[in-house]
Write a structure and sequence with these properties.
The chain is of the alpha+beta class. The protein contains five helices and five strands.
């Protein structure tokens, strides 16, 4: 006949086994839930990324179409030279730059000069010597160019400033772009109240994997900070 102590020990052991099984089952279900949730989040992020890419591609295609339409259809009908110059300027802004003819450094200088001529706002342009964009694809250089262009457009439209500054320099294993003004800045700035221009900059930054910050204090201007990762080139000579 089994003793009560042995029976009690067996009951405790069985209870512990059941409790352990329940805990393991709960943890497995929790892990499955977390895995599926993370998978859905990644799929949603991938979808949003691909959608943003398609939107930006469509935007560039539309820019090119409008530029050609203005140049080929509207410009020949305009007799006023001042209006013709404005239309040509618009066409130039809409057309993608020719990276085979000009480096992106030259284009930075060009876009700042055009900005000053168009807006009357002084734009100080500084690019660090020997700044190398060669590891960045032409497609991504176009995104960078458009981000700078849109940042300057926002200054012209909204800042009320008399001076803008553009800086391009090295920062560790990245390239840092700073576009700032001395205007009114942004009051109660948040992601929710971003305009189309800022959203376009944010989408392009996400596409090229750049870190983006909008830094603003009311009445103290706005700074757009873009940190672009660069791929290190392998300069080692392989062994024979």
């Amino acid at each position: 006949m089994e003793s009560p102590v042995i029976n009690e020990g067996i009951d405790i052991y069985v209870s512990l086994v059941w409790l352990f099984s329940i805990i393991i089952t709960f943890l497995m279900l929790l892990l499955c839930y977390l895995y599926l949730t993370m998978k859905k989040i990644r799929e949603r992020e991938l979808f949003n990324f691909k959608f943003s890419n398609l939107v930006i591609e469509g935007l560039e295609t539309e820019r090119l179409r409008i530029s050609r339409e203005l140049h080929d259809t509207v410009l020949p009908l305009v007799r006023n030279s001042e209006v013709s110059d404005i239309i040509r300027s618009i066409c130039k802004d809409l057309m993608p730059p020719d990276f085979s003819r000009l480096s992106i450094i030259d284009l930075f200088t060009q876009i700042c000069t055009q900005f000053t001529q168009r807006s009357g706002i002084e734009c100080v342009c500084f690019t660090e010597d020997n700044l190398d964009f060669s590891s960045i694809s032409a497609e991504n250089q176009l995104h960078i160019y458009r981000m700078v262009q849109e940042s300057l457009n926002n200054i012209e439209k909204h800042s009320g400033t008399e001076k803008a500054v553009f800086i391009a320099r090295r920062l560790h294993e990245s390239i840092l772009l700073l576009i700032s003004d001395e205007g009114v800045g942004l009051k109660d700035f948040s992601f929710a109240n971003e305009g189309l221009g800022m959203r376009s900059i944010r989408q392009r930054a996400a596409i090229i994997g750049a870190k983006l910050d909008f830094i603003s204090d009311s009445e103290n201007g706005l700074m757009v900070r873009i940190e672009i990762p660069i791929i290190k080139q392998n300069t080692e000579i392989p062994n024979d």
